[in-house]
């Protein structure tokens, strides 16, 4: 049984982490819920027990905690994760603050288990997680030469405020969170623009893919787009492989793999879609076909719930992997 803290417990990802802790029967001896000062004092019911959310302060990092699930943004993580770590806890952090630190593992458990050289483990960006699952299968079988992403990302990627902006648009009101309406629109703009014209979301996808797949010089490019969908991100992946293969062989590989679900039957209009993937735990793949404009190149379409596998579920799966590892070394 473990002492577990959730930081950012009232947020969209934090509250989903709590649901998953319960659903997946994580052995919890003591649960502590933290938030910003703004949400502190709120009551949360977990397993029929009432918890009052506390403001996170430095003295409260003493716990003791075995595991800390952090989903409270980069600044909070930079300040508090090392304090939890010093006290002996393992921190699983959902922000982008630590992801590219060479000492920190950036983990999708079925692709690259954590090294634990530091006791902070980074949870990747949502659109990256659902993309590296199919790419890792292709990398193992054929090797990767180049990856080009185009994303179609739901508003829940921006948390409650993204969902509210879509609802505002539906009511004919002006947006508050996004620079333009998201209702009846698409925004080729997620996170801030860099000097070179790429957005930070695009840079995250590029850098995180290379790190997770341990292919530091893999050519990767991305265009990230926000669409008026509430749940589940879609990513069109164009991938060039080192070795020759066929669409049929790739479909067979995906079909046999437990970490992706193949939905690919164009004759019956079957392919992954956000309306089906939202609320589900899987990474769905389909529209597998050869790109005839380049040698050894294929299109793969992937859809997954960005709050589940893209964030909270991946974090809980990291926790489960750590707990299993610990139990096995007893
Ligand atoms: C979005 N992918 O859809 C972002 C949200 O680095 O974890 C997640 C940001 C991150 O807006």
From TrEMBL:
<keyword id="KW-0028">Amino-acid biosynthesis</keyword>
<dbReference type="InterPro" id="IPR005986">
    <property type="entry name" value="Asp_semialdehyde_DH_beta"/>
</dbReference>
<comment type="subunit">
    <text>Homodimer.</text>
</comment>
<feature type="binding site">
    <location>
        <position position="226"/>
    </location>
    <ligand>
        <name>substrate</name>
    </ligand>
</feature>
<comment type="pathway">
    <text>Amino-acid biosynthesis; L-threonine biosynthesis; L-threonine from L-aspartate: step 2/5.</text>
</comment>
<comment type="similarity">
    <text>Belongs to the aspartate-semialdehyde dehydrogenase family.</text>
</comment>
<keyword id="KW-0486">Methionine biosynthesis</keyword>
<protein>
    <recommendedName>
        <fullName>Aspartate-semialdehyde dehydrogenase</fullName>
        <ecNumber>1.2.1.11</ecNumber>
    </recommendedName>
</protein>
<dbReference type="InterPro" id="IPR012080">
    <property type="entry name" value="Asp_semialdehyde_DH"/>
</dbReference>
<feature type="binding site">
    <location>
        <position position="175"/>
    </location>
    <ligand>
        <name>NADP(+)</name>
    </ligand>
</feature>
<dbReference type="InterPro" id="IPR000534">
    <property type="entry name" value="Semialdehyde_DH_NAD-bd"/>
</dbReference>
<feature type="binding site">
    <location>
        <position position="99"/>
    </location>
    <ligand>
        <name>phosphate</name>
    </ligand>
</feature>
<feature type="binding site">
    <location>
        <begin position="38"/>
        <end position="39"/>
    </location>
    <ligand>
        <name>NADP(+)</name>
    </ligand>
</feature>
<keyword id="KW-0220">Diaminopimelate biosynthesis</keyword>
<comment type="pathway">
    <text>Amino-acid biosynthesis; L-methionine biosynthesis via de novo pathway; L-homoserine from L-aspartate: step 2/3.</text>
</comment>
<feature type="active site" description="Acyl-thioester intermediate">
    <location>
        <position position="126"/>
    </location>
</feature>
<feature type="binding site">
    <location>
        <position position="153"/>
    </location>
    <ligand>
        <name>substrate</name>
    </ligand>
</feature>
<dbReference type="GO" id="GO:0004073">
    <property type="term" value="F:aspartate-semialdehyde dehydrogenase activity"/>
</dbReference>
<comment type="function">
    <text>Catalyzes the NADPH-dependent formation of L-aspartate-semialdehyde (L-ASA) by the reductive dephosphorylation of L-aspartyl-4-phosphate.</text>
</comment>
<feature type="binding site">
    <location>
        <begin position="10"/>
        <end position="13"/>
    </location>
    <ligand>
        <name>NADP(+)</name>
    </ligand>
</feature>
<dbReference type="Pfam" id="PF02774">
    <property type="entry name" value="Semialdhyde_dhC"/>
</dbReference>
<keyword id="KW-0521">NADP</keyword>
<dbReference type="Pfam" id="PF01118">
    <property type="entry name" value="Semialdhyde_dh"/>
</dbReference>
<keyword id="KW-0457">Lysine biosynthesis</keyword>
<feature type="active site" description="Proton acceptor">
    <location>
        <position position="233"/>
    </location>
</feature>
<feature type="binding site">
    <location>
        <begin position="156"/>
        <end position="157"/>
    </location>
    <ligand>
        <name>NADP(+)</name>
    </ligand>
</feature>
<feature type="domain" description="Semialdehyde dehydrogenase NAD-binding">
    <location>
        <begin position="3"/>
        <end position="119"/>
    </location>
</feature>
<keyword id="KW-0560">Oxidoreductase</keyword>
<feature type="binding site">
    <location>
        <position position="306"/>
    </location>
    <ligand>
        <name>NADP(+)</name>
    </ligand>
</feature>
<keyword id="KW-0791">Threonine biosynthesis</keyword>
<dbReference type="InterPro" id="IPR012280">
    <property type="entry name" value="Semialdhyde_DH_dimer_dom"/>
</dbReference>
<dbReference type="InterPro" id="IPR036291">
    <property type="entry name" value="NAD(P)-bd_dom_sf"/>
</dbReference>
